[in-house]
Amino acid sequence: MESAESNSAAAGGKTQNNSVPPVEGVAGGGTSYGWVDGGLQGSSLGNGAIDPTKVHSADLLHVWSMPSTANVSQQEAPRQLEHVNLLAARNERESFQIALRPKVSWATSGIAGSVQVQCTDLCSSAGDRETSAIWVSLNVPCGQQPGIYEGEIFITAVRTETESRGESLTKSERYQLYRELRSCLDITEHREYSSSEEMVQNLTSASTTLRRMLDLPSFQDCQESNGLGDMMDEDIMNNVAVRLKLSLTVWDFTLPLTPSLPAVFGIGFVWSMAPKVGMTHLIITSGGSFNTESVRFSADGEIACEFWHTRALGLAKEYYSDPRLAAYAVPYAPILSSTDSAKNSLRREVEILKSEAHWSKSYFYLWDEPLNVEQYHVIRSISNELQSYASDVRILTTYYCGPSGSELAPSTFEAFVKVPNVLRPHTQIFCTSEWVLGTREDLVKDIVAEIRPDLGEEWWTYVCMGPSDPQPNWHLGMRGTQHRAVMWRVWKEGGTGFLYWGTNCYEKAMIPSAEICFRRGLPPGDGVLFYPGEVFSSSHEPVASTRLERVLSGMQDIEYLKLYSSKYGREEGLALLEKTGMYFGPDRYAHDHGPIDVMRGEVAIPEKEAAYNLQHKWKVIVMNP
Question: Where is the stretch described as Disordered (predicted)?
Answer without folding.
Answer: 1-26
